[in-house]
Amino acid sequence: MATNTETTTSSDSYITCTDCNTNELTSSTDEFVTAFSDNDENGEQNDDETCKDILSLETSNDDLFQDIDSETVVDEYSEEEKQKALLIVECLKRNDVRNLRKLGRTKAGFVCDVLRRMVWPKICKVDVIATSPRPDSEEMSKHPFYTQVVLDVNRSLKRFPPSIAENHRLAMQQQLITLIMRVLMKNPSFHYYQGYHDICITFLLILGEEAAFHCVNTVSKSHLSVFMEKTMESTADLLDIIPLIVRQENERLADFLEQSEVGNIFCLSWIITWFSHVLRNYQTVGRLFDLFLVSDKHMSLYLTSSIILFKAEDILKLNCDLATVHHYLTRTVESEESLPFEKLIDEAQSLLEKYPPQEMVEKQIENKKREQQNVQKFSNFWNIFNIRYLLRKTTSIGFISLAVLVVVSATIFQYWRNK
Amino acid sequence: MSYAYLFKYIIIGDTGVGKSCLLLQFTDKRFQPVHDLTIGVEFGARMITIDGKQIKLQIWDTAGQEAFRSITRSYYRGAAGALLVYDITRRDTFNHLTTWLEDARQHSNSNMVIMLIGNKSDLESRREVKKEEGEAFAREHGLIFMETSAKTAANVEEAFINTAKEIYEKIQEGVFDINNEANGIKIGPQHSPTNTSLPLSGSGSSQGGGCC
Hints:
The structure holds 2 protein chains of 2 kinds. Chain A has 22 helices and 2 strands. By secondary structure, chain A is mostly helical. The longest helix of chain A has about 30 residues, at about 385-419. Mean pLDDT of chain A is about 80; it is low at about 1-50 and about 55-75. Chain B is about 25% helix and about 25% strand. Chain B: GO terms for molecular function: GTP binding; GTPase activity.
């Protein structure tokens, strides 16, 4: 797939592209919507049939998506999802981003990749017409993160659907490198982190390189910037919010986790890759991206909390040690079967309403400050046994008293002379 | 399966040097040519025998990218052994050893046994770091040294087991306080039959399902 793939279909209405250029994407949206409204107005097709068409795009129109999910057939979508697809198309027609955002939060998100391809750029307020020139390969290869990006992309086979032909995948990996480098070069303050490429792959698979670039660029600024700092220290602070949320809901569980010393590192990859590094099911990843795109940037922390809370009973049965709990939690998400994501998403949203991110962030900062003060107090206490510290202290005390003495003497002398 | 001791290890070193592959070769006896990268920490476990005693190795594999260092550091503290890995085909990974070593020494307990590993010894034609250089570095810093290949499994068993032997010797000499779990050593639960951990899948060696 080195070149743009453009596949016209029997209905000739839709252009699907794995490497859409901007015009193609725009026309794709327009024609999709036009086709829909034509059918609607003429009454030639009832809603169900139209929906069927919409949903069948995934299998009939698009090489890539056939590759990605050859199992997908129209019948796999429930009535509810088909109805939702219609609502999404309605919003697209009206350019109603506000309601689109709401639909991203409710069951099934944006339903399928064909719709995601049109909705995500709208959510990201991306002007896909404004193309930006690709940096040339020489310029890219000089970038300090280039070697790392190439190494990581070459190791990212797991994320590409196995049904993709090798040459197709290789071309996509090349596009992925370009996509990441373009965002990094456009935003010199951003540091590449391992896992960022997982997020980029998802956008690339669904949107194609050009639209993916614009969306990833926006999302990096709005949602991922904290992960793109030089170190992960701020990210570690953010992760500390998770046990705070868990404690609000289930104190016993929070105590257990604290006692096990499991910390937060087990969910680091969930948070910084929006779960895309660990989930095997491509459809679930898409669904979660729908949620994260339309939600507060802290939503992944709340979803993580809802997963932990959902598994409370099982966790409390474990041996209370780091390895056991770490192992259980990482495997739970990797195997995924036991997680009812729609329910967990609802739960995460209500947690976010109950415990607003800003409050949690403040609480975390407060806790950290208190901990640091305690550490400081503790070390101050032990310092009385530290000769070097005492010498330093007494020296400074000596210096201060000497200075005070000089000032006082000078004042008295001045007073005496004036007299 | 009961054990006499549990030793905690960490594997550290630059990204892409083969840390996860070494672990996979040791725990599962297999090699994955394209291994996905590690974000945060992952771990594996395997039982070995030293001096007729069952010893469980619990090995924490850390992310190599520098950005993660502030997060993975907290795992150094509770480790009895560390495998510090570089890639013999990438000079820069050897050059960074000093930083890794300083970091490890600063954040771990002072008795931690460190094994220096030059990995990918099967790629002789692409070698950038001579074996003698690795040996010299190890000598200078008081480390054990070995070249390994996670691909061919050469020296992989030895690397993990020799580290364990060194720790075991230190226990015998009384250097390690085995009652303090912060040293990365735990006495086995054989005397406490109520402790029913997660079931071990397979026998002897296991990763994933076996765990902890």
